[in-house]
Specification:
Number of strands: 2
Oligomer: single chain
Family: Belongs to the G-protein coupled receptor 1 family.
Largest sheet: 2 strands, antiparallel
InterPro entries: GPCR_Rhodpsn, GPCR_Rhodpsn_7TM, TRH_rcpt_1
Number of domains: 2
Strand order of the largest sheet: 1-2
Structural class: mainly alpha
Function: Receptor for thyrotropin-releasing hormone (TRH). Upon ligand binding, this G-protein-coupled receptor triggers activation of the phosphatidylinositol (IP3)-calcium-protein kinase C (PKC) pathway.
Strand content: under 5%
Order of helices and strands: HHHHHEEHHHHH
Distance between the termini: 81 Å
GO molecular function: thyrotropin-releasing hormone receptor activity
Shape: globular
Pfam family, one: 7tm_1
């Protein structure tokens, strides 16, 4: 009887484990598909509306395009392989895929944090030093800074080409993992944690504190008409100004406050959604037996994917210009479809006799 009870108990545990595994795979695939799909569409829309709309080509929006491109890289390189990993239960992309996907994951992650730091500094200069912003906060300068960030981060992330490899896990399945002992990765994780998480948050906290003091405490004029005529004329001709609605060099305007609030929300979401994963990696680096609960790891991953997917939603909710640009982009696609259908119908009518004769023949 005892042997039979043990056998039944083992079978029950096995069936529970199989059910939990199926449940985990189903939930993880569903969440990643929804979040990554929405994030890819949203970030592509951000890039398109900034590149195709003249009034959207401001220094701040250039940094938002860089952030959107980095988020796209995270969603594609980290999110989509996670789906195939869950379905197949093994690594299917080979050695080259392991190196390339890991590289692009960290490249997207690190560039996104650098882009956040860049637009934070740009906002600080534009609002707290408006005279200096006329020469420093320009689209051409923003493009040079973005290129510098991507080049430097690309070189830095090449380190991962030498740190990952294909391994066989306890279940005899292939996985993309550590190449050397896990303890040797502690300096790298600490450096990543300091450079691409702590530093951006410290800089953002300090600068947004100074920005808030200027915007919400100082009695700054709210109307452009309060300025001398020559100054107003020159501001109107400035193509690369900070504020695209005409009040470019007056940081106390309503528009400047709205833009700053929107960017501050992006920074806060970055801090909150990256905190679980960064904390887990940091704590596990000091533990002999790391905490690897699959559901908590899934939670950390979902937070990362959400951080990369949520920014377009924030822009749409908090920026009237982005909302109008998104609406125009969607309407453009809707208008193109009927015109294309009409064109195809006309062509079809012209070719109808030929089509009929060919069918008869």
């Amino acid at each position: 009887c005892n042997t039979r009870d043990v056998t039944v108990l083992n079978r029950t545990r096995l069936s529970d484990a199989i059910f939990d595994m199926i449940e985990y795979k189903a939930i993880s695939v569903f969440l990643v598909l929804v979040i990554c799909g929405a994030g890819i569409v949203g970030n592509v829309m951000v890039v398109l509306v900034v590149l195709t709309t003249r009034e959207m080509k401001t220094p701040t929006n250039c940094y938002l395009v860089s952030l959107a491109a980095a988020d796209l890289m995270v969603l594609v390189a980290a999110g989509l392989p996670n789906i195939s990993d869950s379905l197949a239960g093994t690594w299917i992309y080979g050695h080259a895929g392991c190196l390339g996907i890991t590289y692009f994951q960290y490249l997207g992650i690190n560039v996104s944090s650098c882009s956040i730091t860049a637009f934070t500094v740009e906002r600080y200069i534009a609002i707290c030093h408006p005279m200096r912003a006329q020469t420093m906060c320009t689209v051409s300068r923003a493009k040079r800074i973005i290129a510098f960030v991507w080049i430097c981060t690309s070189v830095y992330c090449m380190l991962w080409f030498f740190l990952v490899d294909i391994n066989v896990n306890k279940s005899q399945h292939l996985e993309c993992g550590y190449k050397v002992s896990r303890n040797l990765y502690l300096p790298i994780y600490l450096l990543d944690f300091a450079l691409f998480f702590v530093t951006p948050l410290v800089v953002a906290t300090m600068l947004y504190g100074l920005i808030g003091r200027i915007l919400f405490s100082s009695p700054i004029p709210h109307q452009v008409t309060a300025t001398p005529e020559p100054w107003r004329r020159r501001s109107g001709k400035e193509k690369n100004g900070v504020d695209p609605q005409g009040s470019k060099w007056f940081p106390g305007t309503f528009h400047s406050r709205k833009v700053t609030k929107m960017l501050a929300v992006v920074v806060i979401l970055f801090a909150l959604l990256w905190m679980p994963y960064r904390t887990l990696v940091l704590v596990n680096s000091f533990m002999d037996h790391p905490f690897l609960d699959p559901w908590f790891i899934l939670f950390c991953r979902v937070c990362i994917y959400t951080n990369s997917a949520i920014n377009p939603v924030v822009y749409n909710l908090m920026s009237q210009k982005f909302r109008a640009a998104f609406r125009r982009l969607c309407k453009c696609g809707e208008e193109e479809l009927p015109s294309r259908s009409l064109y195809m119908a006309t062509i079809g009518a012209r070719c109808c006799p030929t089509c009929i004769s060919s069918e008869v023949g």
